[in-house]
Known about the structure:
Helices cover 77% and strands 5% of the residues. It is mainly α. The mean pLDDT is 95.
Amino acid sequence: MEFLRNIAYTMIGGFPVIGYLGILGYLLMIATALVMILTRRKIVKIKPKVHFRLAYITIITATIHAILAISVYL
């Protein structure tokens, strides 16, 4: 767990990696929702494949973020 803890708190640009992953996960979640909102309101035609790929990337990012966060307390 020490290895994961070191990764979580590695500073990049004055901010830890775990913080970047949290922000990235949040932005991906908003982008995933926005794709469906724009498609349902017929503002932009976006294929469902894009929505699913964004969802998969969001799940992976959030899982890595959660693992790093939990590793800090174990």
